[in-house]
Sequence to fold (1082 residues):
Amino acid sequence: MSLQQEFELLRRVPFFAEIEPAKLKLLAFMSQRVGFDDKKSVVRQGEPADAAYLIIEGEADVVLEGPAGPITVATLGPNEIFGEIAILCDAPRNATVRARGRLVTLRIAKDPFMRMVQEFPNMAVSIMQELAHRLEATNNQLRTATSEVRRLREAAPAA
Amino acid sequence: MKGLAAVAAPAEQAPRARRFARSGRRRAQPAGPPPLVEPGELEPTIYRFILKYSLRQQIFLLLLTLASFPFLYYSLELPKTIINDAIHGKRFPRGVFGMSLGQIEYLMALCGAFLVLLFINGAFKYYINTFKGQLGERMLRRFRYSLYLRLLRFPLTYFQKTSSAQIIPMITVECEQLGGFIGDAFVLPLFQGGQLLTIIFFMFVQDPMLGAAAVALYPMQGYVIPRLQRKVNALVKRRVRTIREVADRVQQSAAGITEIQANDTVKLQLTDFAHTLGVIYDIRYEIYNRKFFVKFLNNFIGQLTPFFFYSIGGYLVIRGHLSFGALVAVLAAYKDLASPWKELLDFYQNKENTRITYEQIVEQFQPPGMIDAGLLLDEPETIPPFTGEVSAANLSLAEDDKSRIIDAVSFTLGLDEHAAVIGQSDSGKNELALLLARLVRPTGGRVTIGGIDLAELPVAVIGRRIGYVGSAPYLFTGTLRENLLLGLRHHPITAPVYGDDGLARRRARQLEEARRSGNIDFDLHADWIDYRSAGVADAAGLAVRVTEVLRRLGFEEDVYAFGLRGRLDPAANPELAERLLTARRALAERLVADGITNLVETYDPSRFNSNATVAENLLFGTPIGPAFEFEALADNTYVLEVLDKVGLTDDLVEVGREVAATMVEMFSGLPPGHEFFEQYSFIAANEISEFAAIVGAVDGAPATTLPPDQRRKLLSLPFKLVAARHRLDVLDEPMRARLLEARRVFRADLPESARGQIAFFDPDRYNAAASLQDNILFGKVAYGEADATVRIPEVLSEVLDALSLRQAVIDVGLDYNVGTGGSRLSPAQRQRTAIARAVLKRPDLLILGEATSALDGPVQAKVTEGVREEMSGRGLIWVLHRASLARNFDRVLVMSAGKLQEQGRFTELNHKDSLTALLMAAE
Fold:
C-alpha cells in the first residue's frame, strides 16, 4: 500500500472529501501506517485523544466499558475513520477500539492535523461543512427519536 | 589541632598535622622521596619570590655567565691577532707550544682556535639560555600551582562576589611573562651593568674629565626616567584591570546569551563592549606615548654627551692637556656604552611591568576567610568513623552587614537518626546545611560530632565522613562514572604498574619535575579509588554496588539506557563483545518464539531492508568519521563510482525526480520556515523553489537530460528514503535488487585506504562503531507496527537479564560523557548523580540541601525512601523543599527567619497553628 493509495482512501472519507488534493496528500504523508495484531487495543476508553485512525485493512470492534462490563457496540471496516471528533475537541476517548483479526490503520496525529487546519482555512471550512452535515443528521435522528418517545408515551396507558 | 588529634591519634602525643601529610603521602608513593611542603603564603614581590625559590640557580647562572667572559673576550681578541700577527706579521716560522709553524700553518692554527672559541661561545649561550628557560618555566609552574592551590582554599562566598572569568586570565595569560623575566632577573642587569662600569672605568683612566663628562647626565636620567615610568606603571595597572573586565563581560555574555537575544539587548551589549575596548585603546595609546617618550629622552641625552666630548675634549686637546689619541679612544668607548645602557633601560621597563603584574595577581589571591592550607591537605594516619551525636550549639551566621541568616540554632541529633529540616526558602535552612557540612564557617557557635569541633578537622576527615549535596550540584566534564566515584578518589591507593620501562622512567621524571616546582607529586595514573571506603573489595564489587545505589535512586534505568546507546571497543573487551553477540542470537530466537519477527527487520546481507534508509542499505555498515556520513553520501565520489558501475545512477536520479515532484506538490503551499519542513520534508524550505524549477524543467522528459549539478541535487534525495516509512512507492523490486548489487560492489571494491572509515554489518561480528542496542538488535525496529516501540525494549531487556548482561550494559552506560558541567544530563539526573556520589562513599552523616528539588513528585518519594534505606543506622539531615516529605522522618527541625522554631516528631508538630501545619497548608 503506498502513499498514493492512502491518499485515495482518505479522499473517500466524507470528512476529508473537500480538502485540496495536495494538502490531503501531505496529511497522508505526515500520518503513519500502524498495524495491530488481533485483540490489540488501538485506543482505550478514557485516555486522552492524540490521533484519529483510518482503517486500511481489517476490522475493529468498538467496545464500551460500562459498569456491567465491556459491550461491543459496533464493528468498523475498511475506509472507516474513528477518533476524528475527539482530536477536534480535546475530549477523552469515549470508547475502546480493538483489532478484530489483523488490522492496519493510518494514524493521523492530532498535532499535524491541527496545524494543517490552521494553515489552510479551506480545510477548516470543509470540516465545518462535514460537521454541519453530521449535526443536521443527528438533529433529524433526534427529532425522529423524540417524536417516537412522545408517541410511545401517549400510547402507554396512564399508570 | 585538638580535634584532629582526637580523631587521628587518640594517644597522648598529638603529632602535628603536617607530619600526617608526609606520612600519608609517603605511603602512596613508596618509591619517591618525601614531597615538598605545600607552598605557604605568596611572596609579596617578585624579587622575594625569585630569591626564595631560585637563589641557588640564580647564583649558578651568574657564575656561568662570568665563566663565559674569558672565552668571549678571546674570541674578540683573536681576529686582531689573526690580522696583525698572522696575515701582516713577519718573522716566521714561530714556535707555538714547542712546535715550529710557518705563516700558513700559523694562520690555520689561529683560525682553528677561533673556530673552537666560536663553538664554546655558542655552547655557553645555548646552555645558559636553556637553563634560563627551564628555571623560568619551573618558577612559573610553581607560581601557577600556588595560585591554583589558593583558589581551592577560597571561601565559598568568594565566587559570589568575583567572577571566575577574572581569575582565569591571572592563572593563564597574565603570569606567562613572569617565566621569561625570572631567568634574566639578576644576570641581565649585572652583565650589562658590569659592561657599562668597565667602559666608564676605562674612560676615567683615559681622562677623568672626559669620564665625568660621559656620566654627567646619568644623574638626570636616573632622576627623570623612573618618574616618567611611574606614570606608565599606573597605566599598565589600569590596563590589566580593564582587560579583566573584558574577560568578565565575555563570560557574562556567554552565560546570558538567552537573555541577550530574548530581550534584544544586543546593541547595548555591543556598545558597552565597544566602550570598554575604547578605554583599553586609550590606555594603550597613552602607554605607547609615554614609553616611547622615555626612550626618546634617553636617546636624546645619549646623543648630547658627544657634545661635551667635542667641546670639552676639543678644548683640552687644543690646549694640549689631552692627547689626540686619548680623545679618539674615549669617543670609540663611548659608542660601546650605548648598547648596555639601552639594554638596561629595556630591562628596567620590563622589570616594572612584570613587578606590577605579579603584585596585581598576588593581591587578588588574598581574600579574607581562606581555608587553612593544612586543613585542606593534611592526611591523617587513620580516619575512624564518627560516633556519638551531632550537636549544634548556638550556631550563628551573619552577613557582612551583621544581619543574621542563622540565629543561635542549637540541637542534638543521634548519628543513627534521620532529621528533616523544613521552612520557607529564606528561613536559613540551606545555610544551616552548609554550616553543618562545614562548608561555611559559622560566625558564632559551633558544630560538634562526638564532641569534636568540626572547625578543627581537616578536609580529609570532613570530606570522607560527611556527605553533602546541594540543590544545584556540579558535575565535572567527563564520564558519569568519574563523577559518581569522585567521592572515593582522595589520594592514590595503588601505584600504577608500568609494563613498559621507558614509560615508567618517563613518569618518574615527570614526578621529579613536579617536586622541583613544589607541585604535588602524586601519580595521576595510579588507581585512586578507595574501594574500602565504598565497602567493596575490588572494581567488580564496586560495579555491583554502584548499580545497587543507582537502583535505590531510581536512576538505574537511565544509565541502562545510556548503556544501550553507548559503544564498546571489542578489542578492549573481547569477552563482553562475544556475550553481546550471544544476546544478538538470543534476541533473534526470542522474536521467533514470541511470533513477533515482524517488529524488527534484521540486517540480512542478501536482502533489502525496507525499514532502513537507502543510504544504510547501500553502505550496509556504520560510517566511522565524516567520509561516509549518510547526509553527504551523494557527494562521495566513491559512492557515485559504485552507482555508475552497477548502472544505477540514472535510475536513482529518476527516483529523486519522483520524490522531488511529490515533495514540491505537497509542500509548496506552506510558508517557508514552517515546522513541517523540518519534521517531514526531504527538501528544505529554501530549496523548494529550486526543486520546483528542476521538476518543471524535466516535465516528463527523462531526467538524464538534466545538467550535472541538477542531477546531483536530485540524486541526494533517494538516499534519505525509508521504504516502509515514507511509502512513496518509488523503489520497486528490480531497483531493490540492483541496490543489493551496489551494496556488494561497494564492499568488494572499497579501496584499502577507506576500509577504516566504515564498520560493515556482519551477522557474526561485533560492530565497534554501532551502539550496544544496534549490535544486539542487528536490524531496524519496524515502522507501522503498533507494539514495536514498546515490545522491543521489553524483549531486549528480558533477553539481557536472562544472559546476566544488565550489569555489563550499565557499566557501558557509566562511560556516558556528561558534557560540560553535566549539561548532557537533565537537572533531575544531575541531582541523582550527586546523591549517588555522596551515598557511595558511605558517610557517617549525610546532609542534603533540597537535593531532589528537580525530581518529579513520585520519583521524589522513591528517592527519599531509597536514600533513607541506604542511610539506615547512620545520620541523615535533609533540607526539604516540601514540608509534606518530612512525614516519615525520625525528627523534624522547622526553621523560620534563621531561628530553629520547632523540633520534634512530625505528628507532634503537625497540629493546628503550628509552623509545620502552616508550611503544609502553603504547599
Remarks:
- The longest helix of chain B spans residues 266-318.
- Residues 1-37 of chain B have pLDDT under 50 and may be disordered.
- Chain B touches chain A through 25 residues (CB under 8 Å).
